[in-house]
Write a structure and sequence with these properties.
Order of helices and strands: HHHHEEHHHHHHH
Number of strands: 2
Radius of gyration: 19 Å
Low-confidence stretches: none
Strand content: under 5%
Shape: globular
Mean pLDDT: 87
Largest sheet: 2 strands, antiparallel
Helix content: over 70%
Strand order of the largest sheet: 1-2
Number of helices: 11
């Protein structure tokens, strides 16, 4: 039962990693750009959700919808104002811009009086609830069940979107070959902007799901640095791989935290990604890419 408890905790944490890694992968597939501010977008989503519930007094579900819409707007503005002017520049330039935006977002939050420097509890309706199974031997947090269930629903919604919707199919075409998609009449720039908005909304969901466990604070975006190895393990161009990689990182981290000495928990995800780069550099689900000389 102890092992089951550890695995469940690791899977719940891994779902958060997977959602953040999903944002990495979506943007990379569409624009071949890595957004290192994905963790900070998650943090902004958590703070907006907190403001909706505590300041505006909105119900939980209404707060989620408002937060997602607000974060879509943030993602669109970020792409339009910072990323689009850099089209054609070196990839390193875009990476540095996203890192800079992350620092700006974190600094802007900390400057809010009474909010930015404190730690806040997100008042979700299932806070602190437990479910006992196997005669009470296994105690499961409802927060963990909500994280796992919400991630599964979101993955199903994204699958249906990319598989059957016109915009989802167009986004896949853009991710395969932007120039060919442009010649076929697909609005590449508009879809790139939509991908940034979608990834910001997914990050917001991750922030709201994570907040009841780790609370809401300005530095919660640092979790994105653990989601990045998840994207690499799953394969940086694979959407299912992002979720699988997140689950793997979450379970490895939980097992290392329980069975290994103190300190190994924080190192374990990076050891796992180093092993993966040696054994299978393109990740579990990554496609083999080759360029002609």
């Amino acid at each position: 039962m102890q092992l089951a408890q550890i695995l469940l905790s690791g899977l719940a944490q891994g779902c958060i990693y997977g959602l953040i890694a999903l944002g990495f992968v979506l943007i990379y597939k569409a624009t071949e750009t890595i957004n290192f501010a994905q963790g900070e977008l998650m943090m902004l989503g958590a703070f907006i959700g907190l403001a909706c519930m505590t300041v505006l007094g909105l119900p939980f579900w209404a707060s989620i919808i408002v937060t997602m819409l607000a974060m879509v707007t943030v993602g669109v503005i970020l792409e339009w104002a910072l990323i689009r002017p850099l089209l054609g520049q070196m990839a390193f330039t875009v990476v540095m811009v996203t890192i800079g935006f992350g620092y700006i977002a974190r600094g802007a939050i900390t400057m809010i009086p009474g909010w930015g420097t404190d730690t806040h509890a997100l008042p979700v309706p299932y806070k602190g609830e437990l479910v006992r199974v196997a005669g009470g031997q296994l105690v499961i947090s409802v927060e963990q069940l909500v994280i796992i269930g919400a991630t599964a629903v979101l993955c199903l919604a994204l699958y249906l979107f990319f598989r059957y919707s016109k915009y989802g199919i167009a986004m896949q075409a853009v991710s395969q070959n932007q120039l060919a998609a442009y010649y076929m009449g697909i609005p590449v720039r508009g879809l790139n902007t939509a991908v940034w908005g979608l990834s910001a909304a997914i990050a917001a969901i991750g922030g709201i799901l994570l907040a009841p466990i780790t609370f809401v604070h300005a530095n919660m975006g640092f979790i994105g640095m653990k989601a990045f190895p998840a994207a690499i393990i799953g394969g940086f161009g694979s959407i299912p791989g992002a979720i699988v990689g997140g689950l793997i990182i979450g379970v490895i981290e939980a097992m290392a935290g329980y069975y290994l000495p103190e300190g190994f928990k924080d190192v374990a995800p990076y050891v796992a990604v180093l092993v993966m780069l040696v054994v299978r550099p393109r990740g579990l689900f990554g496609e083999k890419m080759a360029k002609r000389a």
